[in-house]
Amino acid sequence: MDDEVQQPEYEVGTGMLCVFGRQLKLLRERAGLDRARLGSLTGYSASTIASFEQGRRISPPKFIDQADEVLGAGGVLSASKEEVARAQYPAFFRDAAKLEAEAVELHVYANQGVPGLLQTEEYARAVFTNWRPLLHEDVVEQRVTARLARHEIFCRTQLPTISFVIEESVLRRPLGGWGVMRGQLEQILLHGQRRNVEIQVLPTERDEHAGMAGPFTLIETKEGRRIAYVEAQQDSRLYTARKPVREIEEQYGLLRAQALTPRESLAFVEKLLGER
Questions:
Q1: Which residue among 153, 209, 222, 232 is buried most deeply as judged by most CB within 10 Å?
Q2: Residues 186-245: pLDDT tens digits?
């Protein structure tokens, strides 16, 4: 489940981030504090405070609570935390991101790049740096931060069941260079050791393939709802009707059968590391 697609109307510096930034600036000025002073009281530099106010960076929840207290905002800023957090993702991905964060099961098929939940910071930065049309540097940093924030799913008290089927070609493409890819392969191995995570590699030499329609993610919610998320080029969609979801579930079952076993897959990744 990835969030690479650029939606210009939701870039940094627009929408919710700008609204929050203006509120922050007005409250700061009302309190008689300059950016440096607010930064010293909350643990941030004056330039970072400027970025928050200008909507160029996502304000972390901890900062929002601190600023609310320091500026005597009476909960006005803190009430925006959820919407500010959602704003770090492109509009098309926000509902999927919320479902992902709360899922009890996630099953991901990837044939273009390493799944976002497994990406290292360096690999994620390479993904967004290589994006065309070029993303502004602030957007790249926002997207990297947002992608890494999704990794909190691995720290939940109630761990979800997560599985991945990744095309061999994805693991052989040295996006960002072999130094970056080495770190990425090592991270895949680490995640593959988790008790709630299974990673399978689909060899390129297979002459049968059930996922020719492209990447997808299957989500099961704590209420038992089954949802499929599909993303391609400038479009994405959440499927909730049983028929299309069942069809994608069938594809995933076949892909798992066609892929190497989890144990064989980790051995394959280790072999790739040994080749470099």
A1: 153
A2: 999 999 999 999 999 999 999 999 999 999 999 999 999 999 999 877 678 999 999 999
The closest alpha carbon to 123, from 4, 254, 243, belongs to 4
**In contact, 124 and 143? CB cutoff 8 Å:** yes
Distance CA(47)–CA(57), nearest Å, equals 11
Distance, in Å, from the CA atom of 166 to the CA atom of 215, rounded to the nearest integer, reads 10
For the chain, strand residue ranges (E) read 105-110, 161-167, 197-202, 216-220, 226-232, 235-239
Give the pTM. Answer: 0.79
Q: What backbone torsions phi and psi does residue 105 show, to the nearest 5 degrees?
A: -140, 140
Integer-rounded Cα radius of gyration of the chain: 21
Instruction: Give the H or E element holding residue 214.
Output: none
Q: Which of 35, 23, 33, 6 lies closest to 133, judged by CA?
A: 6
Angstrom distances, CA of residue 261 to CA of 108, 113, 242, 250, 265: 15, 20, 28, 18, 6
DSSP string, 157-169: SSPPEEEEEEEHH
Q: Which has the closest alpha carbon to 45: 53, 58, 35, 55?
A: 35
Which of these, 52, 60, 58, 62, lies nearest to 27 by C-alpha position? 52
CB-based contacts of 55, cutoff 8 Å, min separation 6 = 12, 13, 14, 15, 17, 18, 20, 21
Q: How far is CA 101 from CA 104, 144, 219, 236, in A?
A: 9, 17, 10, 18
The closest of 245, 253, 247 to 99, measured between CA atoms, is 245
188 φ, ψ to 5°? -60, -40
216-220 and 226-232 strand pairing: antiparallel
CB 185 within 8 A of CB 136: no
Q: Report how far apart, in Å, the C-alpha atoms of 258 and of each of 109, 210, 211, 244, 247 are.
A: 12, 8, 10, 21, 17
